[in-house]
Amino acid sequence: MRWNEQERATYEREGFVLRRAVFSEVELEPLRATVEEAVAQVAERARRPEAGPEFRLGDGHRLQFSSQTVIQWEWREGSREIRLLEPFTFLHPRFMALWDDPRLLEPMRDALATEHVAPYTCKLNLKRPREGSEFPWHQDFTYWYAFTPAHAREIATAILFLDDADGANGGIRLLPGSHRLGPAARDPAEPTGFLLDPGRLDVRHERLIEARAGSLLIFPALMVHRSSPNASGRQRRAMLLSFQPAGRPRQQELVWRPELVTELP
Questions:
Q1: Considering only CA atoms, which of 94, 112, 91 is closest in space to residue 218?
Q2: What are the strands of the beta sheet with 69-73, ordered from one edge?
Q3: CATH architecture observed for domain 5-263
Q4: Distance between CA atoms of 84 and 89, rounded to whole angstroms?
Q5: What is the CA radius of gyration of the chain?
Q6: What is the domain partition of the chain in residue ranges?
Q7: Max CA-CA distance within the chain?
Q8: Residue range 107-158, pLDDT digits in tens
């Protein structure tokens, strides 16, 4: 399960490795079913009168704390679709087992250049047909800097695609090699302070990741990426598990200090 020499060189040069057909359809089907069950249960609890309050970010996006997770509701006003849950693996043993799956664990040892890796955070990303919205250019590093500035660079993410992903249904788009350039300039006009300035990015070599269900994409915290909206009639669901060197606290154990990002470009 460890990287071969070509994958190692690709990760260093371009900043990502895509492994295809890592999980079989026999494995994916129960994962998809469990995702839908878990999402339905979280949504039901979130809509109770006594559920945690909903709040808005500076850009108007709606979030809510409920069921021990942060719910990001779909951006469109009035939508009741869940866009993202963080964290999510605690919702079912089938999800928890992914942290110890060698298909994720072994390449992460290469990505982080350490034999001992552990969970940092996890996200369940849902782009529903014709409703899943885009996410602009960003680096995960910027968000993680607000939790762990000393170690934000030392985190990498594995994305397990539960559905085929392409340009029509909200595929991920990367800037190969951007991870080697450090923190990118943030957009001064963007109200949250976390998104990147598109006018200061060289997007000529943007790479659309077209991946069949069961593929695994691995990239580091400094990779510049975005995703397009889901304009299709198909689902685009994915599980994102972020790893760090062992011995460090998980994100949920840390304090969110968004003011720290003002230290960044």
A1: 112
A2: 17-19, 216-220, 156-161, 236-245, 117-127, 82-86, 69-73, 62-66, 54-56
A3: Sandwich (2.60)
A4: 13
A5: 18
A6: 5-263
A7: 55
A8: 999 999 999 999 999 999 999 999 999 999 999 999 999 999 999 999 999 9
